[in-house]
């Protein structure tokens, strides 16, 4: 920007000293001559025309010169200030352009990284910040216009070229800011669209994975029929077990039958237990340590003449009735023992929990690893009556199958925990293979 200076020096020349009269004689004339800034503007005094003191014309000219000088100084300060403002605007524009280039190179980064220098990280905040910057520039332009108005009022001369340059520069900057705002809005829309697309793609992928997992689970548990499966409990721990989802009603008799395969020693452990609130040993079948297999009803105990620890599949059934506490024990379809006075006249309490493979010290928990069943178990069925010997024999030799009317052995009724597994099994074919 070129510097302007417009100081004027008024120099007067005295005539013949006569006032202009009727004869048309010319009086004093004034000549305006441009002089460089910084020149001594004090008026030389013509001592030949001055008799005493200072004339009113000289005094008026001196005051005019002083006022012009003050005006020039004020305008000079204004120009310096405006030059600083222009430099600041240029710096701001350069920073905006640098941020725009930086934003373009890091466009694929997420919002958690600052891609706009000192601008906010969110495009919405960036647009708001640019709006504030534009408003600040407009306020500065208004201040400059007010300074021009004050300078014109005081009789000074504001450089029109500087004002026009500032307006053009501000217009260009405003246009660039608006363009940048539009670009940011477009980027924001694209990011939202890309985010929605990515989220949809991720959800589709997860849905596909879940469907695949479900298919694999179904294929692994695709038993030929709901009862053709087994529960495996390979370790003597206190956390491997199965659980029957159905509970028992109040019963005055029962028959429980199952297939067992175990070679654990000493003792196969606890094939099943039924506990109710207030009595964890409502019904328990257990072979613990070197003791024979035992049946507990309401925590009353009797020994059973059963032996199933040879690593082969065996079918066992136990019947009990509250009348005289009479019981029967069957192995592979043959009745091996009977007895009475086992918890006589005691009804089996309802609302308890049936656990496969563990003995309960509290309802549904507090297992003891030394009492855990080790082996495989299948076709656990329970009835609320005493079955006939012919029915038990038919199930043992695979000539008939009778699901329990209280607890049937179906896949949906059995859940496993702690590493216990369910696997497909056709019990009669597997038993023939063992034999």
CATH C-level label of the largest domain: Mainly Beta
Order of helices and strands: EEHHHEEEEEEEEEEEEHEEH
Major beta sheet, specifics?
7 strands, antiparallel
Q: Based on CA inertia axes, which overall geometry fits?
A: rod-shaped
Structural class: alpha+beta
Biggest sheet: strand arrangement: 12-11-10-5-14-3-16
Question: Quick one: how many beta strands?
Answer: 16
CATH topology of the largest domain: Jelly Rolls
- Give the quaternary arrangement of the chains: single chain
Low-confidence stretches: 1-28, 45-52, 108-120
Characteristics:
single chain; 435 residues; alpha+beta; Jelly Rolls; 2 domains; 7-stranded antiparallel beta sheet; 5 helices; 16 strands; 36% helix; 22% strand
Describe the 3D structure.
This protein is an alpha+beta fold and 435 residues long. The chain folds into two domains: 188 residues; 206 residues, Jelly Rolls, CATH 2.60.120. The strands form three sheets. The chain has a seven-stranded antiparallel beta sheet. A seven-stranded antiparallel beta sheet has the order 9-8-7-6-13-4-15, with no helix packed on it. A two-stranded antiparallel ribbon has the order 1-2. α2 packs antiparallel against α3. It starts with 7 loop residues before the first strand and ends with a helix.
């Amino acid at each position: 920007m070129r510097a302007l200076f417009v100081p004027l020096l008024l120099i007067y020349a005295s005539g013949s000293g006569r006032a202009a009269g009727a004869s048309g004689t010319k009086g004093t004339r004034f000549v305006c001559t441009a002089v460089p800034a910084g020149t001594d503007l004090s008026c030389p005094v013509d001592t030949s025309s001055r008799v005493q003191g200072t004339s009113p014309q000289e005094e008026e000219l001196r005051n005019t010169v002083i006022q012009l000088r003050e005006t020039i100084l004020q305008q000079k300060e204004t120009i310096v200030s405006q030059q600083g403002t222009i430099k600041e605007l240029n710096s701001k524009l350069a920073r905006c352009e640098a941020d725009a280039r930086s934003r373009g190179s890091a466009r694929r980064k997420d919002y958690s990284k600052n891609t706009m220098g000192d601008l906010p990280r969110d495009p919405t905040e960036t647009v708001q910040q640019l709006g504030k910057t534009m408003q600040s520039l407009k306020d500065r332009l208004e201040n400059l216009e007010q300074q021009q108005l004050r300078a014109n009022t005081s009789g000074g001369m504001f450089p029109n070229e500087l004002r026009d340059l500032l307006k053009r520069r501000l217009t260009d900057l405003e246009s660039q800011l608006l363009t940048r705002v539009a670009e940011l809005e477009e980027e924001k829309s694209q990011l939202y669209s890309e985010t929605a697309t990515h989220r949809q793609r991720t959800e589709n992928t997860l849905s596909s994975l879940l469907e695949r997992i479900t298919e694999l689970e179904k294929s692994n548990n695709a038993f030929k029929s709901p009862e053709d499966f087994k529960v495996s409990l390979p370790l003597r721990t206190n956390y491997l077990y199965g659980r029957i989802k159905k509970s028992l009603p109040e019963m005055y008799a029962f028959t429980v039958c199952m297939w067992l395969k175990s070679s654990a020693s000493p003792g196969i452990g606890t094939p099943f237990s039924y506990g109710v609130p207030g009595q964890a040993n409502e019904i328990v079948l257990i072979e613990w340590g070197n003791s024979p297999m035992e049946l507990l009803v309401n925590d009353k105990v009797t020994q059973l003449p059963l032996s199933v620890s040879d690593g082969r599949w065996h079918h066992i059934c136990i019947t009990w009735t509250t009348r005289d506490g009479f019981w029967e024990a069957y192995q592979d379809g043959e009745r091996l023992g009977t007895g009475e006075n086992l918890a006589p006249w005691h009804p089996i309490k309802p609302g308890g929990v049936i656990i496969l493979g563990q003995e309960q010290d509290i309802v549904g928990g507090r297992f003891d690893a030394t009492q855990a069943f080790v082996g495989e178990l299948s076709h656990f069925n329970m009835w609320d009556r005493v079955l006939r010997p012919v029915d038990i024999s038919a199930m043992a030799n695979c000539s008939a199958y009778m699901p329990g009317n209280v607890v049937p052995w179906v896949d949906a009724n059995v859940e496993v925990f702690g590493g216990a597994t369910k696997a497909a099994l056709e019990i009669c074919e597997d038993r023939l293979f063992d034999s």
